[in-house]
Amino acid sequence: MAEAYLTQQLSLQSAALVEATQRLVQTPSPNPPGDTAAVARVAKELLSGIKNVEISEYETGPGIVNLVARVTSGTLGKRLVFNGHLDTYPVSGVLAENCDLWSGELVITLAGDEESGGVLGSGWLLNNVDIVRGDAVVNADVGSPRVVRFGEKGTFWVEITAEGVAGHSAHVHNGVNAIDRLRGALDAAQSIERIPFESPREVTEAIENAKHVSEAISGDGESRTLQTITFNVGVIQGGVSPNLIPSKASAKCDLRLPVGVSIADVEAHLREQLDPMEGISWTPLQRYEPTWTSPSERIVQSALKASKEVVGPTGLDSVVNMRVGGSDTRIFRLAGIPSVVIGCTPFGMGAEDEYVLVKELEQVAKIQALTAYDFLRK
């Protein structure tokens, strides 16, 4: 069978996959400042080894380099897009060597601006490069080879500012404490966690059906987090001394929105709760709607099938689920393109010595190849 052949070929290329990943990880590309020129050169060299590949490079800002690579089967068919950061490397060389097994084309987009919201990365590519608009997208952001993520929560960042009247703390009757006002405003804003909403049944059923597998990987309570509005105060500033009444205070907050809650809902709540409060103002900093692809879509089922074939039964089955974190797939979903995320489990994510398992790196490469084959097969 073609699936077994492709898996075997990927197993033979395991050492090359690990070496390619090491080269990419060893090349600095932190954001900020967001300079991806060096890692783009490495990625371009790696992509150049794919048979009959066409590579384009786009610098959309100082040092923000994006790469787009295309491999065509030579026959008409669908277009599948592999989307990732410039520190990932989707494996398509195996499929490029066996164009007779599939039709259509594969496109690889390596964005240089994911951590800053994707405006100059995947968003720019989707709006300016025709071949980036495919029939489906596979993204290799972190997760688990056993969980196919078909959607993600929305994001709303807001800065809330409180104005008061300065004075000495011994004479509180002559001042107005801005931090006290801010505390009240934060409580009012956080009450959004209790507003009623309804998610599509297809989404809630998928979350519940995935709970026993997904929470074993991502932690107890994930399914509840996926189905609730969360409010986190990440930054607070105000005051200079304990014996002075602060005249100004501010906080930056992160709200995550499940499917069924819109940006308009959040803004309406903040206007209702905060606008009448004296000395309080608020400003949105970043906002993205929740997005999801139906679990019944072909790309989701192809990825699920591939995950089951590669990972196999080990006490936990492969499942489909939503995602608590964000990725560039939201950009494609908002453009009407079905998209999934399936990647390695992150260990120590965001901390020193963050790592993934070589075994899972190999599994994800196989899952991506088999997903592409199943989606594009003749």
The H-and-E topology, N to C, reads as: HHHEEEHEHEEEEHHHEEEHEEHEHEH
Strand content: 15-25%
Going by CATH, the architecture of the largest domain would be 3-Layer(aba) Sandwich
CATH topology value of the largest domain: Aminopeptidase
For the CA atoms, what is the radius of gyration?
Answer: 23 Å
Number of strands: 15
Globular, elongated, flat, extended or rod-shaped: what is the shape?
elongated
Q: Kindly provide the name of the CATH class of the largest domain.
A: Alpha Beta
Distance between the termini: 14 Å
- The helical percent reads 25-40%
Query: What profile does the largest beta sheet have?
Result: 6 strands, mixed
CATH superfamily of the largest domain, please? Zn peptidases
Domain Peptidase M20 dimerisation: 151-275
Protein name: Acetylornithine deacetylase
Organism: Penicillium chermesinum
GO molecular function: hydrolase activity; metal ion binding
Mind explaining what this structure looks like?
The chain has 378 residues and is of the alpha/beta class. It has 2 domains: 2-152 and 291-376, Zn peptidases (Aminopeptidase, 3-Layer(aba) Sandwich); 154-288, 2-Layer Sandwich (Alpha-Beta Plaits). 35% of the residues lie in helices and 25% in strands. The chain has 12 helices and 15 strands. It has helices spanning 2-12, 14-26, 37-47, 93-96, 122-128, 178-190, 201-218, 222-226, 263-274, 298-311, 329-334, 358-376; strands at residues 54-61, 64-72, 79-85, 105-111, 136-139, 147-152, 154-163, 167-168, 230-238, 244-245, 248-257, 280-288, 291-292, 319-323, 339-341. The strands form 4 sheets. The protein has a 6-stranded mixed β-sheet, with helices on both faces. A 4-stranded antiparallel β-sheet has the order 9-11-7-12. A 3-stranded mixed β-sheet has the order 13-6-14. Helix 1 packs antiparallel against helix 12 and helix 10 crosses helix 12. The two termini are 14 Å apart. Pfam families: M20_dimer, Peptidase_M20. GO terms for molecular function: hydrolase activity; metal ion binding. Residues 151-275 form the Peptidase M20 dimerisation domain.
